[in-house]
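= Paired protein data =
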Amino acid sequence: MILQALHGYYERLLDENRVVPQGFQKKEIPFVIVLDAEGKFVDLEDTRSGEGRNRRTGRFVVPQSVERTGDNAWQKANLLWDHKGYVVGHSDTDHATAKKQHESFLGRIREVLKGLPDEGVKAVTRFLEIGDFQGILAHPTWRDVVAKGGSLSFRLSDETLLVCERPAVRQRVAAVATSVESGTPPQACLITGESAVPARTHSPIKGVRRKNKTTTRAKIVSFKLPAFGSYGKQQSLNAPMGRRAEFSYTTALNTLLDRDSHQKLIVGDSTVIFWTERRHEIESVFANFFGEQEKGVPVQDHKQILALYRAPESGVRPELDPTIRFYILGLVAPNEARIAVRFWYTGPVREVAENIGAHFDDLEIAAPPKWSPYLSIRTLLRAIATRNDLDTVPPNLAGDTMKAILVGTSYPSPLLAAAIRRIRAEQSQKDPRTGTLTPNVTYARVALIKAILVRDTRIGGPFRLNAGKEVGMSLDIGNTNVGYRLGRLFAILEKTQEEASPGINATIRDRFYGAASATPIAAFPHLMKLKNHHLTKIENRGRAINIEKLIGEIMDGITDFPVHLSLQDQGRFAVGYYHQRQRLFGN
C-alpha cells in the first residue's frame, strides 16, 4: 500500500513535470569541466553560490547513479559524471585504483553512448582519450575539488546544459533504462500488478534523519544476505517489483525527503512526509500544524483547515476539497543501514481535518497573552522533554502522539505521566539570571494534560472519568473532582503567601507542589496551618476575609485530605492549579 501510493505520487509529479523520467536523477554537481567542440580544456567551473551555511551547489539532471560496494566498486562508473578518481583518475593516496576507475568511466561512456552522433559526447570522449589533464590540475578551482570533494561533469563552452543533459544523450539513457534485461524472466510486479522484469536491487533512500541529526542513505526494500532469501530467489527478486515501479517509488520518496521539500517534518526521532493523490492545498498548510512557528512570522490561524472541520456546523462550503485521499508516512533510521516505518496513515482530507480540529478543541485552554492557541506538536513534546531537549523524548512517544492526533485515538499513555513528571521535576527550578522561581505548571503542559483527560473521557480511554465533570478550558467552580479542587486550593494558598510576604523568592510551590499533588495528606494539613499565619500578615482585612471565603467554598464537602491521588487526578490537580492562577491574575 505504501509503495503503491508512492508510485501514484510519482505518476502525478511526472504529469506536473516536477520529477525526472526513468533513468535520471537530480544531483548536486559542484564542479563542471568546460570543453570546446574539439575536446580541449577551457575552464573548471564552480557551480556553488552564496556564503557560509547558505552556500548552495548547482543541481542538474544526470543519469541515475550506479550501486557500487565492495572490492570491485571501481568497475562501476556513473555516466558522464562522478568524482575526480573516475573523471580524471586522480587520487591523493591510491593512484592504482584511481587509474582503474578512470578506465571504467571511459568504458561506460563508450558502452552506453556508442555510435551516438552527439557533439558533446564526441568532445568528452576525445578529451578523456587524450588524457591531458594538466590544465585541470593547474586550475585555481582544483584546490577546492581536492579539499571539498564532490562530483564533476562536463559542459561545452557555448552551452548552458551539461553534456549529460543534451537531448540525444537523454534519449539514449532513457532507452537503456527501459530496455529489458536479458536472463531475468518477467514476473508480476507487486506495485502495479503488471508483468515486468523485476529490479534486482533498489535505489537508496536519502534524507531520513537519525538521532544524531545526520541523515541516512539506506534502502527501504532490501534482501542483502542469502539468509533472507527464499525459494532460491536472490536479492530483491524475493519481492519482485518492476524496474519502472522501483524507480518511481524511490524517486517519489527521495523527492519528498529532499532538503528543500516543504512536505517533510521532523517529529521527535521520526521523519514524516505527506502528500495527496491529487494536487491539494493541504500539502502547503499541513506542515504549519506540526512544525515550529518561525520567529517573526504571525501566528497561524489555520482558517482553511478549521473551516473544513467546522463546515457541517457552519454550513459554509469549505475551500479545500474534502474527498481527496491524504497520505502520511513516518520513517525512522535506527542506524546508518536501516530505515523502518514508524507509522502509516491514509484517509480522506475531511477525516484528517476533523481529527486535527478535534485535537485543537481538546487542547484548547485559557492561554496567556502572546501565546498561540494552536500549539505545534514540537512545542508539546518540548514541554515534556528534559531541558527542553527533544532528543530526550522517548523514541516512540513522538510518533505515537502524532498518530493519535491524525487517527483520533487516545493519546499515548506515557504522555500524561511525562507531563506530570516534568511539572514535579521543575517545581523548584529557578531562573539563573534573576534567581526567581520559573513556572513549572506551564501553558503547554496543562493544555496537553487537559487534552489527554478530555479525549479519554469522550472516547473511553484509559484515563476516562467515570463520573463527574471533566476539566474545561477555564476555571470551573462547579467541578467537584477532588484533584481539581485541591489544585485550586494550592493556588489560593500560594497566592496568600505571596500577598503576606511580597517579593518572596520562594513560595510553597518550591517545596510542596509534588507532595500536595500526589499525597495531599502529607502536605495540606501543614499548609492550612501555614495559611492562618499568612492571613494574619495581610494588612487588608477585607482581602483576608475574601480569601477565607474562597477557601471555604473550595473545601466545601472535603472532610479529609486523600492519602494519595491517582495519575489522572494529579493531572486534574495541575489543571485546577493553572485555572485558579489564571483567574487570580486576571488572565
Notes: The chain has a mean pLDDT of 86. The radius of gyration is 32 Å. The longest strand covers residues 340-348. The longest helix spans residues 482-500.
